[in-house]
User: What shape does this take?
Amino acid sequence: VLPVFGYELSEHDEVRKIIIGDEINLSIKRAFPVNVTADGKTETVYMTEGTAREALKKAKVTYSDEDLLSISPDEFLEGETDLTVKRVTYSTDVLEEVIPFEIEQRQTPLITRVGRVVTLQYGANGTKEVTVERRLIDGVEVERTVIGTKVTKSPTTQFSLEKKKKG
Assistant: This one.
């Protein structure tokens, strides 16, 4: 009956028949697309009414309180909408870092040649383990926080002697 009166329907539109006495009224709710993007995929769902939460449910997309939504889950959708879910995850990593050794050089009159340096003890770098918590959005690191440091090998200071400068 509707095409006779110039109404075209999509498969997602809702038509309701309301009967009042001998009179039949039809109500048409037009569907609008909601493009839901999550986990590298976009799915289009059609709605005639509802919230962003309902659109996510219809698209079979779950989310946690940590995830970032482009629209509040309780926001009522009224027309074509793009809704994006960015996944927030955390990882803890232990990184090994070098602790550079220090050089201590003393002047002495015992060395007779200018420019000559005698090394009494060679230096050696140390190492430390740094525990970091990384915050990732859709797999990309956006924040790094150091949550602990542990020295695993202390550095050894290098000691040297050189000719005492005049003056």
